[in-house]
Amino acid sequence: MTDALTLDVDAVALWARDRLPGFERPVGVEKFQTGQSNPTYALRTAAGDYVLRRKPPGVLLKSAHAVEREFGVQSALAGTDVPVARMHALCEDDGVIGSAFYLMDLVPGRTFNDPAMPGLTKDDRTAIVQDMARVLAAIHSVDLDAVGLADYGPHGSYYRRQVDRWTKQYRASETETIPDMDALIQWLDAEMPPDDGLVALVHGDYRLDNLLIAPDAPRIVAVLDWELSTLGHPFADLAAVLMQWSRPAGTAGRGLAGVNRAALGLPSDAAFVEDYCRRMGLPGIDRLEFYLAFAFFRMAAILQGVKRRALDGNASNPERALQLGAQVPGYATSGLAAAGRG
């Protein structure tokens, strides 16, 4: 973590005083380097430790950086089988610190930017990936009516809506012509599967580095970064996990390409899909290539937005944002390859 940048801690303390009993002015504030979308801070107070997550400053794309949705969905999931941090208070008044924000517990835990998880035992790696399947199935099994999320998003035609949405977002932040991205969008339009009626809560960015692992056990204690969550098709989350693992190994690509997974105790893609399907009571998944191509497309569109914010001077970490933005053509090419068009 680095020092806080422009967070007005006095304004936060004044706002929280009557809304969060026991909250005191932070004696220490640190800004997390991770998280390109919504700037995130650790607030150390005499009464306890919190996390503040806010929208970035500047002009934002419509429906992006939805901290209000993050707060709402995590509040709704309290008490379910989905591990989330405890939510405390949401501020939708931009006048307090310049943008909307929320406060939640700081959950002790470990994060891994490298899915090979160096330094862990083989058994612990196996257990963590198995827990990834368990938690993903828990997210997709949430009783939407029981937790008040039945209206969290539109029902039906998930991929049609998502392709339209992210194509629009991509065009709004486009900085150059990428032929493979244009071809991928055309392929997704042409190969759109019929609606099969599956509707679930979807996280939208489910991957290892958005999970907190217990400090002393191979167990997920919190799922983070719910900005892209909605009601949709569960296989989008599953494909996103496989997409991430296909990326270059190490902390830069955050993938497992070329890694001897068996030697490290990491399951294959097929084994992970089988584990997930067993937990969901599914016989298998047809047309996985479409879901994978879609996952690459959406990530390319997201990273294009990150690049645009960096160029516009609104990125949380400009240098890292430009590095991520440079990966957009590669994601588009990989999407075509997943579709069998590469």
| Helix/strand order | EHEEEHEEHHHHEEEEHHHHHH
Low-confidence sequence ranges? none
Sheet with the most strands, sense and barrel status: 6 strands, antiparallel
**DSSP strand (E) fraction?**
5-15%
GO molecular function, one term: kinase activity
Organism: Silicimonas algicola
Protein name: Aminoglycoside phosphotransferase (APT) family kinase protein
Keywords: Kinase, Transferase
Your description of this structure?
The chain is an alpha+beta fold and 342 residues long. It has two domains: 104 residues, Phosphorylase Kinase, domain 1 (2-Layer Sandwich), CATH 3.30.200.20; 217 residues, Aminoglycoside phosphotransferase (APH), C-terminal lobe (Aminoglycoside 3'-phosphotransferase, Chain: A, domain 2). Helices cover 41% and strands 12% of the residues. It is built from twelve helices and ten strands. A six-stranded antiparallel β-sheet has the order 1-2-3-4-6-5, sandwiched between helices. Helix 6 packs across helix 10. The longest helix has 25 residues. It is globular and about 55 Å long.
